[in-house]
Amino acid sequence: MSLSTMRTxxxxxxxxxxxxxxxxxxxxxxxxxxxxxxxxxxxxxIARSRSLIALQAQSLAAAMHGNRSFWAAGLxxxxxxxxxxxxxxxxxxxxxxxxxxxxxxxxxxxLAAYDVGAWAAEMNAHFPSYSATVNCSVQTTTPVAxxxxxxxxxSYLAYNQTTAARPARQTATQSLTLHVQP
Length: 182
Hints:
Layout: H1 3-66, H2 68-71, E1 79-83, E2 86-89, H3 108-126, E3 131-137, E4 145-156, H4 161-164, E5 170-180
Antiparallel strand pairs: 1-2, 1-3, 3-4, 4-5
């Protein structure tokens, strides 16, 4: 075997090793890029949920502003809670079956019950595990103020081996509080 033949075989073998190393590095890089994309999509979903919760809370605030003769006049219950489509109100003002105020003229209390019921149905459609509590100061000597606190469950994606060792679906309870002065 000549010296040039041995050099050619050595060069071919060396090129094959280089190709295998390059493939391994490229594969690791592509797996890392896929993981980053999965994390970005998961974080986008979390941001979407938080934005929708904030918009829904603002929607209830807008309904309160639109019905000042109920909310700002001190007629609102001091506290009520909403979970799913169920409204729990100690005074019974908001938790009865609301009438459709789009089709007929409603009193301020009926309109408030309708607005809260519609809000609860919309929240339940998008966030079935949500709950909300509304606390209002009903003293008419000072401006009426309400606090809308919404809680929901968020799911997280495992970012590394430590978080991957935890249960498959990681969730955390989040909350958003909105202060409203109807």
